[in-house]
Design brief:
The complex is a heterodimer.
Chain A lengths: L8 E5 L4 E6 L7 E8 L6 E6 L4 E2 L4 E4 L5 E6 L8 E9 L13 E6 L1
Parallel strand pairs in A: 1-9
Antiparallel strand pairs in A: 2-7, 3-4, 3-8, 5-6, 6-7, 8-9
Chain B lengths: L4 E3 L2 E4 L5 E6 L6 E8 L3 E9 L2 E5 L6 E5 L5 E5 L8 E8 L1 E2 L2 E2 L3 E2 L3 E5 L1
Parallel strand pairs in B: 2-13
Antiparallel strand pairs in B: 1-3, 3-8, 4-5, 4-9, 5-6, 7-8, 9-12, 9-13, 10-11
The chains are: A mainly beta, B mainly beta.
């Protein structure tokens, strides 16, 4: 599975937008880009996923570069509850395996 | 609907003992995966079950095993516990629609401490 690269940590102030980057230069044409986050003392939770086009849902937006070699998770107004580790994961849409490859993720700190 | 339920939430065992952890997936989900999370190694894949069959296995010793029942509930077992097995064990369930995966839903995990 193709690897992703994320910054170890990022900080934001409450109610400000947050842009979390992810590089995936070896992405294949059949890889979906998934984002999960893990709040303290919780299991990971799904945030968003996309293939080629930008995606929006109630939690966040996903902006995918035209060449698909990078993507950005956008939290439009950070809250204290958004403090978590964010994982960018590639998942082959043709694979029937449920395995997810987690890297180290980005630790997001939100300041009040 | 109810989420993924893992039991017990916390467990303390002694080196050399064995332990069994349980996971009840979301109703209708037939895929269950297990992960180990430690501060040093992060989240690592253990194994995946689909319709009672193990379909994928991570790079863990044979002391780690699992199974899935006909109702999709899954158990994982660790025999001859070592101090290094202390970790958060997470279970995730997913639905498979055609060849496209929906999101994975994780339980809160079982915190295993080996002393």
């Amino acid at each position: 599975d193709a690897k992703t690269t994320q910054p170890n940590s990022m900080e934001s102030n409450e109610e400000e937008p947050v842009h979390l980057p992810c590089n995936h230069s070896t992405i294949s044409g059949t890889d979906y880009i998934h984002w999960y986050r893990q709040l303290p003392s919780q299991g990971p939770e799904y945030v968003i996923h996309g293939l080629t086009s930008n995606v929006n849902n109630r939690m966040a937006s996903l902006a995918i570069a035209e060449d698909r070699k990078s993507s950005t998770l956008i939290l439009h107004r950070a809250t204290l509850r958004d403090a978590a580790v964010y994982y960018c994961i590639l998942r082959d849409r043709g694979s029937t395996l449920g395995r997810l490859y987690f890297g180290r993720g980005t630790q997001l700190t939100v300041w009040p | 609907k109810a989420g993924v339920t893992q039991t017990p939430r916390y467990l303390i065992k002694t080196r050399g003992q064995q332990v069994t952890l349980s996971c009840s997936p979301i109703s209708g989900h037939r895929s269950v995966s297990w992960y180990q999370q430690t501060p040093g190694q992060g989240l690592q894949f253990l194994f995946e079950y689909f319709s009672e069959t193990q379909r994928n296995k991570g790079n863990f010793p044979g002391r780690f095993s699992g199974r899935q029942f006909s109702n999709s509930r899954s158990e994982m077992n660790v025999s001859t516990l070592e101090l290094g097995d202390s970790a958060l064990y997470l279970c995730a369930s997913s639905a498979l629609s055609g060849v496209n995966w929906a999101e994975a839903f994780f339980g809160q995990g079982t915190r295993l401490t080996v002393v």
